[in-house]
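Title: [Solved] DNA polymerase III subunit delta 3D structure

Original question kept below for reference.
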Amino acid sequence: MLRMEQLAGQRKAEQMLRHALRSGKVSHAYLFHGPPGTGKKAMALAFAKALFCSAGGDDACGECLECRKFEHGNQPDLIQLAPAGQSIKIEQIRQLQQEFAYRGTGTGRKVYIVEQAETMTVQAANSLLKFLEEPLSPVTAILITDNRLAVLPTIRSRTQSVPFLPVAPEAMLDILTAEGAPPLLARAAVYLSSGLDGAREILQQNQFAEIRNEVIQLGKESITRFTAAMITAQQRLFKNGLGDNPQLLLSLLALFYKDMIQFQAGRQDKIVYIDQLDWISKHAFDRSSEGWIACIEHTFEAGKRIRANVPSQLAFEQLLVNLQEG
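Solution (posted by the thread starter after getting help):
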Protein backbone atom coordinates (compact mmCIF):
# COMPACT_ATOMS: atom_id res chain seq x y z
CA MET A 1 0.00 0.00 0.00
CA LEU A 2 1.59 3.24 -1.23
CA ARG A 3 1.50 6.13 1.24
CA MET A 4 3.72 9.17 1.74
CA GLU A 5 4.39 8.26 5.36
CA GLN A 6 6.02 5.02 4.19
CA LEU A 7 8.62 6.81 2.06
CA ALA A 8 11.60 7.26 4.35
CA GLY A 9 14.23 9.95 4.09
CA GLN A 10 12.35 12.89 2.49
CA ARG A 11 10.73 14.55 5.48
CA LYS A 12 10.79 18.07 4.03
CA ALA A 13 9.04 17.06 0.80
CA GLU A 14 6.50 15.00 2.74
CA GLN A 15 5.69 17.88 5.09
CA MET A 16 5.19 20.31 2.20
CA LEU A 17 2.79 17.97 0.42
CA ARG A 18 0.90 17.02 3.58
CA HIS A 19 0.39 20.70 4.39
CA ALA A 20 -1.04 21.30 0.91
CA LEU A 21 -3.50 18.43 1.37
CA ARG A 22 -4.41 19.43 4.92
CA SER A 23 -4.96 23.10 4.08
CA GLY A 24 -6.68 22.44 0.77
CA LYS A 25 -4.13 24.68 -0.97
CA VAL A 26 -2.92 22.22 -3.58
CA SER A 27 -0.90 23.92 -6.32
CA HIS A 28 -1.81 23.40 -9.97
CA ALA A 29 1.80 22.31 -10.67
CA TYR A 30 4.76 20.93 -8.72
CA LEU A 31 8.40 20.40 -9.67
CA PHE A 32 9.96 17.47 -7.79
CA HIS A 33 13.74 17.85 -8.11
CA GLY A 34 16.79 16.24 -6.57
CA PRO A 35 19.49 13.61 -7.16
CA PRO A 36 18.64 10.26 -8.77
CA GLY A 37 17.39 7.58 -6.42
CA THR A 38 15.90 9.94 -3.83
CA GLY A 39 12.34 8.66 -4.27
CA LYS A 40 10.82 11.42 -6.41
CA LYS A 41 8.70 9.07 -8.54
CA ALA A 42 7.45 7.09 -5.53
CA MET A 43 6.50 10.31 -3.75
CA ALA A 44 4.75 11.63 -6.87
CA LEU A 45 2.61 8.50 -7.03
CA ALA A 46 1.89 8.58 -3.29
CA PHE A 47 0.89 12.26 -3.52
CA ALA A 48 -1.30 11.57 -6.54
CA LYS A 49 -3.00 8.75 -4.66
CA ALA A 50 -3.66 11.10 -1.74
CA LEU A 51 -5.14 13.67 -4.12
CA PHE A 52 -7.62 11.10 -5.41
CA CYS A 53 -8.41 9.69 -1.95
CA SER A 54 -12.01 10.41 -0.97
CA ALA A 55 -11.22 10.38 2.78
CA GLY A 56 -9.89 13.93 2.54
CA GLY A 57 -6.89 13.58 4.87
CA ASP A 58 -3.26 14.57 4.47
CA ASP A 59 -2.34 11.15 3.07
CA ALA A 60 -4.09 8.33 1.23
CA CYS A 61 -6.30 6.22 3.48
CA GLY A 62 -5.68 3.10 1.42
CA GLU A 63 -9.22 1.84 1.99
CA CYS A 64 -11.66 3.96 -0.03
CA LEU A 65 -12.77 3.10 -3.55
CA GLU A 66 -10.45 5.68 -5.11
CA CYS A 67 -7.43 4.33 -3.24
CA ARG A 68 -8.27 0.76 -4.25
CA LYS A 69 -8.67 1.84 -7.87
CA PHE A 70 -5.27 3.54 -7.69
CA GLU A 71 -3.60 0.49 -6.15
CA HIS A 72 -4.93 -1.74 -8.95
CA GLY A 73 -3.88 0.64 -11.73
CA ASN A 74 -7.47 1.51 -12.56
CA GLN A 75 -7.36 5.27 -12.00
CA PRO A 76 -8.34 6.75 -15.39
CA ASP A 77 -7.69 10.34 -14.29
CA LEU A 78 -3.97 9.74 -13.75
CA ILE A 79 -1.69 10.11 -16.78
CA GLN A 80 2.03 9.37 -16.66
CA LEU A 81 4.40 10.73 -19.29
CA ALA A 82 8.01 9.67 -19.90
CA PRO A 83 10.55 10.36 -22.68
CA ALA A 84 9.94 8.67 -26.01
CA GLY A 85 13.53 7.76 -26.73
CA GLN A 86 15.89 10.50 -25.60
CA SER A 87 13.34 13.26 -25.12
CA ILE A 88 9.74 14.22 -24.42
CA LYS A 89 8.35 15.48 -27.70
CA ILE A 90 5.67 18.03 -28.54
CA GLU A 91 3.39 15.28 -29.87
CA GLN A 92 3.33 13.73 -26.39
CA ILE A 93 2.34 17.03 -24.77
CA ARG A 94 -0.38 17.55 -27.37
CA GLN A 95 -1.70 14.06 -26.68
CA LEU A 96 -1.71 14.85 -22.97
CA GLN A 97 -3.72 18.00 -23.61
CA GLN A 98 -6.18 16.09 -25.78
CA GLU A 99 -6.64 13.46 -23.08
CA PHE A 100 -7.61 16.09 -20.56
CA ALA A 101 -9.83 17.89 -23.07
CA TYR A 102 -11.75 14.63 -23.57
CA ARG A 103 -12.05 14.13 -19.83
CA GLY A 104 -12.71 17.77 -19.03
CA THR A 105 -16.44 17.33 -18.56
CA GLY A 106 -15.98 15.56 -15.24
CA THR A 107 -15.76 17.36 -11.91
CA GLY A 108 -13.21 15.05 -10.29
CA ARG A 109 -9.52 15.77 -9.89
CA LYS A 110 -7.08 14.88 -12.64
CA VAL A 111 -3.34 14.42 -12.24
CA TYR A 112 -0.50 14.03 -14.70
CA ILE A 113 3.10 13.11 -13.90
CA VAL A 114 5.94 14.03 -16.26
CA GLU A 115 9.15 12.07 -15.67
CA GLN A 116 12.56 13.44 -16.71
CA ALA A 117 11.01 16.84 -17.37
CA GLU A 118 14.42 18.22 -18.29
CA THR A 119 14.36 16.13 -21.49
CA MET A 120 11.46 18.06 -23.01
CA THR A 121 12.28 19.57 -26.36
CA VAL A 122 11.91 23.35 -26.56
CA GLN A 123 8.70 22.90 -28.52
CA ALA A 124 7.31 20.43 -25.98
CA ALA A 125 8.26 22.69 -23.06
CA ASN A 126 6.59 25.70 -24.67
CA SER A 127 3.47 23.66 -25.36
CA LEU A 128 3.35 22.47 -21.75
CA LEU A 129 3.92 26.05 -20.60
CA LYS A 130 0.64 27.13 -22.18
CA PHE A 131 -1.05 24.24 -20.38
CA LEU A 132 0.44 25.39 -17.07
CA GLU A 133 -0.52 29.01 -17.64
CA GLU A 134 -4.16 28.12 -18.21
CA PRO A 135 -4.70 25.19 -15.83
CA LEU A 136 -7.93 23.27 -15.89
CA SER A 137 -9.45 22.91 -12.46
CA PRO A 138 -8.93 20.71 -10.60
CA VAL A 139 -5.84 19.48 -12.50
CA THR A 140 -2.50 18.92 -10.79
CA ALA A 141 0.77 18.55 -12.69
CA ILE A 142 3.79 16.85 -11.10
CA LEU A 143 7.03 17.33 -13.02
CA ILE A 144 10.02 15.22 -12.00
CA THR A 145 13.66 16.02 -12.75
CA ASP A 146 17.15 15.20 -11.52
CA ASN A 147 18.35 18.62 -12.66
CA ARG A 148 16.08 21.54 -11.82
CA LEU A 149 18.23 24.07 -13.68
CA ALA A 150 17.86 22.08 -16.92
CA VAL A 151 14.12 22.74 -16.90
CA LEU A 152 12.93 25.81 -18.81
CA PRO A 153 13.00 28.82 -16.42
CA THR A 154 9.48 29.85 -17.39
CA ILE A 155 8.23 26.40 -16.37
CA ARG A 156 10.16 26.53 -13.10
CA SER A 157 8.52 29.87 -12.30
CA ARG A 158 5.06 28.37 -12.75
CA THR A 159 5.56 25.34 -10.56
CA GLN A 160 5.97 24.91 -6.83
CA SER A 161 9.44 23.61 -6.02
CA VAL A 162 9.61 20.43 -3.93
CA PRO A 163 13.27 19.58 -3.19
CA PHE A 164 14.45 16.02 -2.61
CA LEU A 165 17.70 15.86 -0.65
CA PRO A 166 20.40 13.20 -0.53
CA VAL A 167 19.76 10.82 2.35
CA ALA A 168 22.58 10.26 4.85
CA PRO A 169 24.35 6.94 4.12
CA GLU A 170 24.06 5.89 7.78
CA ALA A 171 20.28 6.32 7.74
CA MET A 172 19.95 4.39 4.49
CA LEU A 173 22.20 1.63 5.81
CA ASP A 174 20.00 1.16 8.89
CA ILE A 175 16.88 0.87 6.74
CA LEU A 176 18.39 -1.50 4.18
CA THR A 177 19.87 -3.85 6.75
CA ALA A 178 16.53 -3.86 8.57
CA GLU A 179 15.01 -4.94 5.25
CA GLY A 180 17.43 -7.87 5.14
CA ALA A 181 20.12 -6.55 2.80
CA PRO A 182 23.63 -7.98 3.42
CA PRO A 183 25.45 -5.30 5.47
CA LEU A 184 28.64 -5.21 3.38
CA LEU A 185 26.74 -4.90 0.11
CA ALA A 186 24.33 -2.37 1.58
CA ARG A 187 27.26 -0.29 2.81
CA ALA A 188 28.65 -0.07 -0.71
CA ALA A 189 25.25 0.64 -2.24
CA VAL A 190 24.43 3.57 0.04
CA TYR A 191 27.70 5.29 -0.79
CA LEU A 192 26.94 4.91 -4.49
CA SER A 193 23.48 6.44 -4.27
CA SER A 194 21.76 9.58 -3.02
CA GLY A 195 18.64 7.80 -1.84
CA LEU A 196 17.00 4.54 -0.87
CA ASP A 197 15.46 3.85 -4.26
CA GLY A 198 18.84 4.11 -5.94
CA ALA A 199 20.53 1.95 -3.32
CA ARG A 200 17.86 -0.73 -3.67
CA GLU A 201 18.32 -0.74 -7.45
CA ILE A 202 22.06 -1.26 -7.03
CA LEU A 203 21.55 -4.14 -4.60
CA GLN A 204 19.22 -5.81 -7.08
CA GLN A 205 21.75 -5.74 -9.90
CA ASN A 206 23.04 -9.07 -11.08
CA GLN A 207 26.39 -10.14 -9.66
CA PHE A 208 26.76 -7.06 -7.45
CA ALA A 209 28.53 -9.13 -4.77
CA GLU A 210 30.93 -10.62 -7.34
CA ILE A 211 31.63 -7.20 -8.82
CA ARG A 212 32.46 -5.83 -5.40
CA ASN A 213 34.88 -8.69 -4.72
CA GLU A 214 36.64 -8.26 -8.06
CA VAL A 215 36.95 -4.51 -7.54
CA ILE A 216 38.65 -5.15 -4.19
CA GLN A 217 41.15 -7.42 -5.93
CA LEU A 218 41.73 -4.91 -8.72
CA GLY A 219 42.16 -2.10 -6.20
CA LYS A 220 44.75 -4.08 -4.29
CA GLU A 221 46.64 -5.08 -7.40
CA SER A 222 46.66 -1.50 -8.67
CA ILE A 223 49.02 -0.35 -5.93
CA THR A 224 51.46 -3.26 -6.12
CA ARG A 225 52.79 -1.96 -9.44
CA PHE A 226 52.79 -5.50 -10.84
CA THR A 227 51.29 -4.85 -14.24
CA ALA A 228 50.66 -8.51 -15.02
CA ALA A 229 48.57 -8.98 -11.87
CA MET A 230 46.50 -5.90 -12.68
CA ILE A 231 45.88 -7.05 -16.23
CA THR A 232 44.83 -10.48 -14.96
CA ALA A 233 42.36 -8.90 -12.55
CA GLN A 234 40.98 -6.67 -15.28
CA GLN A 235 40.65 -9.54 -17.78
CA ARG A 236 38.79 -11.58 -15.17
CA LEU A 237 36.22 -8.82 -14.86
CA PHE A 238 35.37 -8.90 -18.54
CA LYS A 239 35.74 -12.65 -18.98
CA ASN A 240 33.13 -13.34 -16.30
CA GLY A 241 30.72 -10.75 -17.69
CA LEU A 242 31.23 -8.51 -14.68
CA GLY A 243 32.35 -5.69 -16.95
CA ASP A 244 28.88 -5.28 -18.45
CA ASN A 245 28.30 -2.38 -16.07
CA PRO A 246 31.58 -0.46 -16.28
CA GLN A 247 30.27 2.67 -14.54
CA LEU A 248 29.34 0.64 -11.47
CA LEU A 249 32.79 -0.97 -11.50
CA LEU A 250 34.50 2.40 -11.71
CA SER A 251 32.35 3.91 -8.97
CA LEU A 252 33.20 1.02 -6.66
CA LEU A 253 36.90 1.38 -7.51
CA ALA A 254 36.78 5.10 -6.72
CA LEU A 255 35.29 4.25 -3.31
CA PHE A 256 38.19 1.84 -2.69
CA TYR A 257 40.73 4.63 -3.22
CA LYS A 258 38.61 7.04 -1.18
CA ASP A 259 38.80 4.58 1.72
CA MET A 260 42.57 5.08 1.76
CA ILE A 261 42.08 8.81 2.23
CA GLN A 262 39.45 8.23 4.92
CA PHE A 263 41.87 6.01 6.85
CA GLN A 264 44.66 8.56 6.56
CA ALA A 265 42.30 11.20 7.95
CA GLY A 266 41.22 8.97 10.85
CA ARG A 267 37.66 8.62 9.59
CA GLN A 268 37.37 4.87 9.88
CA ASP A 269 33.61 5.09 10.40
CA LYS A 270 33.33 6.37 6.81
CA ILE A 271 35.21 3.46 5.25
CA VAL A 272 33.06 1.56 2.74
CA TYR A 273 35.13 -1.62 2.44
CA ILE A 274 35.05 -2.17 6.18
CA ASP A 275 35.84 -5.87 5.78
CA GLN A 276 39.18 -4.83 4.27
CA LEU A 277 40.12 -2.56 7.17
CA ASP A 278 43.15 -4.64 8.17
CA TRP A 279 44.56 -4.54 4.63
CA ILE A 280 43.74 -0.85 4.26
CA SER A 281 45.53 -0.04 7.52
CA LYS A 282 48.71 -1.60 6.12
CA HIS A 283 48.61 0.12 2.73
CA ALA A 284 46.78 3.44 3.18
CA PHE A 285 50.09 5.29 3.50
CA ASP A 286 51.69 3.64 0.48
CA ARG A 287 50.70 6.80 -1.36
CA SER A 288 50.01 10.35 -0.27
CA SER A 289 46.46 11.67 -0.13
CA GLU A 290 47.26 13.52 -3.35
CA GLY A 291 48.29 10.19 -4.89
CA TRP A 292 44.98 8.58 -3.95
CA ILE A 293 43.09 11.61 -5.27
CA ALA A 294 44.94 11.14 -8.57
CA CYS A 295 43.76 7.51 -8.64
CA ILE A 296 40.16 8.67 -8.14
CA GLU A 297 40.56 11.24 -10.92
CA HIS A 298 41.94 8.58 -13.28
CA THR A 299 38.92 6.42 -12.47
CA PHE A 300 36.49 9.26 -13.22
CA GLU A 301 38.33 9.99 -16.45
CA ALA A 302 37.86 6.38 -17.54
CA GLY A 303 34.15 6.79 -16.93
CA LYS A 304 34.10 9.89 -19.13
CA ARG A 305 35.84 8.01 -21.95
CA ILE A 306 33.29 5.21 -21.76
CA ARG A 307 30.44 7.72 -21.90
CA ALA A 308 32.14 9.16 -24.99
CA ASN A 309 31.79 5.68 -26.58
CA VAL A 310 35.33 4.44 -26.01
CA PRO A 311 35.13 0.61 -25.65
CA SER A 312 35.01 -0.33 -21.98
CA GLN A 313 37.94 -2.74 -22.12
CA LEU A 314 40.12 -0.18 -23.87
CA ALA A 315 39.18 2.47 -21.29
CA PHE A 316 40.10 0.07 -18.48
CA GLU A 317 43.45 -0.74 -20.07
CA GLN A 318 44.26 2.96 -20.23
CA LEU A 319 43.14 3.34 -16.62
CA LEU A 320 45.57 0.62 -15.52
CA VAL A 321 48.41 2.44 -17.27
CA ASN A 322 47.50 5.69 -15.55
CA LEU A 323 47.26 4.00 -12.14
CA GLN A 324 50.70 2.46 -12.65
CA GLU A 325 52.16 5.84 -13.50
CA GLY A 326 50.63 7.32 -10.35
